[in-house]
Batch of 3 targets.
Target 1
Amino acid sequence: MQKSGSAVWSGTLKEGKGTVSTESGALRDNAYGFNTRFENAPGTNPEELIGAAHAACFSMALSNILGEAGAVADRLATKAVVTLDKVEGGFAITRIHLTLDAKVPDLDDRKFQELAAKAKAGCPVSKLLKAEITLDARLSA
């Protein structure tokens, strides 16, 4: 399986503008630029796109792992906070922190934590990234 995303950029780093799109059309010519990345202007940026991708991938991986354990989630709400730091030689994504709020009937917290950790390690996006990836997982009643 192969999926694609694309970007178009024009201009200098600070004054330039770009758009990002996905093969599926879920994103189509969404604006991004220096101001959306570093100055909180409207539009998207690579870090939030990576965060959304990681949150989605982790949630799907956990759903699969829960199913293998005989459990089905009523709800898996995952947020991924991506940290971009200035490092020697430029910038790097240094951390991603996943926060999960889950409702999974008939599953105790010990088993839930074990399965969530397995999903964090096994999610294809987690495997791709070199950043430290942490997780806070909470099982709601």
Target 2
Amino acid sequence: MYFRLNPECYFIKGKQHGAIYDLIEGDVYALDSKESQKIEECENNEIIDSADPFLLELKKRVVGNFYDKKVFIEKLRLGSPIADYQQGVPPNLARAFLEMGNSCDQSCGYCGYNGVSRSMGCLGCNIWDENGTPVSMDRWKELIDELHLLHCQSLFIKGGNLTKNWEKTREILEYTDKKFKNIFVITHKAHFSEEVRDSLKNKANLIIQIDSLSDIDAQYEYLLMTDCQNANDIFENLPNNVIVDIISRNFNSPQLGSRVSPNRNINKTNLEWFTHNNKLHPCLGNSITISWSGEVLPCPMMRKYSLGNIKERKLWTFLRGTPDSIQEYWNLSLNKLQKCKNCEFRYACTDCRALEVAMTGDLYSKTLCNYDPSRGTWQQADS
């Protein structure tokens, strides 16, 4: 008798243990070393005991099945395995961040200007202690056309206090109208007004940065700022339209048991997420940022990783797959991080390179994680 996992179920081996990914139900089953070895033998078409309680449980959960003879199971896949290597095929550009300005008088303590680490700073408004010349309106419009031709799915318009020059923002919104599947404008609650609301009507969605859960409206998305020490309490009964941005000057101390750090509650997954994480970085993949001065960045929070300036080059030259292109960061899958490549949960995990770089200065570090794949153990919050 033989046992094989279903086409939608993948066995991923770690340094010590393994995991089964059910890409239909979204569940990730953590296995111990003996269970991992047994599944590895099953996937190699070795003879098994049909009365094995563990395998019977997997069959009950519709994860695998028994067979009378050796079988070949074609795994469920998304897209063509050779699609990435076709000549002339443009890259998949999921989202672009456009910083339309670098000015604000709000003086928020968590602003990027003050060098504070943020878990969701990419979705927040920031200004930066930088020199440079702003990108012209004509060049912004050219960039929008280039992004449209590249079939960019989502556009995020941000950059300090956009209302300080709202006519510029309004003109950009008029120009982007109906060119993208999703358009978002990011602003602080202090800058939100009826004029802003009316300008966005039927043109863009709004992400409002707030400091408390009071005065939220169901029709908008909110980015809630909270200190790292208070994050766990905030997540209780959190409205669906609120994203939490955890802030800290040093994530080292509170990382164990923190919301910025993977814990025993492994994320649910699906075919798209699993396929993406096999090849690309969970967050940086298929994303690009154009700073207020034209610098091309892998992330709005990774200011020291410029690939060049958009005033001097066309956008497509940053997407052509050469070593100096944005794909260097897109292709930074967790398979390429020393700690993560030995982890059985790597294809269900999230990751923030901006936070890791802020903490360690190392693009390939992985410190915000409670799991040690070399031992197959979780660290405790009080250890």
Target 3
Amino acid sequence: MSSASDVLLDVRDLKVSFRTEDGIVRAVDGVSFSLRRGEVLGIVGESGSGKSVSMMTVMRLIIDPNAIFEGEVIYKGRDLMKLSQDEMRRVRGSEISMIFQDPMTSLNPVYKVGWQIEEQLHAHERLSKRSARARSIELLKAVGIPNAESRIDDYPHQFSGGMRQRVMIAMGLSCNPDLLIADEPTTALDVTIQAQILELIKRLRREFDSAVVLITHDMGVVADIADRVVVMYAGRIVEQGQKSQVFYDPQHPYAWGLLGSIPRLDRERTHRLPTIPGQPPSMLAVPAGCRFRPRCPQAFDRCAVEDPPLLERAGDGHLDACLLPVEAKRERRDATIRPVPAKGPA
């Protein structure tokens, strides 16, 4: 069992709201989780569930004056929410790095990609100009960019979307961070390059004992690389547990809805894949009781009046926010879908 000293990141009751003309948008509402050194945490959920906003807040990258923050983000014993901007800049990039979802808006269009990677190496690693350039070429090669020696002097607009994503991944890995936050890092990449990127992340973890937070819609990627899984819906965590627990024994109807919508190669295609009905709620006016209730086929009377907390209900560290008894969940789940089996340890 890991000791408390192994905990690298401890997010406690994080809340992020935005003042708008229509009211307060509660984008993240009481998210808590911890991450140990060398661990990979997969965060899954539909668009708008609060995944990216949570991790952008961890990085202190949300500077909107209408944003309201509550809670604690403890990293190596320090609350990042209380650091000054200068102190946070020393952490960002060197100790905590992030691969952003949209590389075109994350890369500066007026600077060459090599300069943008080298700038980070100069700032945090104190490398000479020649050493930083050599390291940048090495990183570009590692993420699968051909002719890296010449492409290092190209501008972002001269790369395709997938190539720009690889540049962002190279920047994220450049300083061998203790914590890497990867927001949909393989979305724009073909399966061959995706496998290479996942192998790079595994190598970072293996060689430097780095922790990884992987935000993704791809449950296959989560099954390949994650140790634990967090499922988010409407700004909250609705299920959290070891990968094997969430994949083999999902406890929340939303989680098993996500898993049931994945095509399976080991079964005959006899009918259409099941889908989750409806749309996620507006964060201006979330439903009373359980937030998933309007879309949940398993909802009953209590769901309309009780807001279920995230609790350990089976005594095995597996948390969920559903009012159904454990055996009732399993019975109803197995009547609708069978969960996707997880792969072996990464």
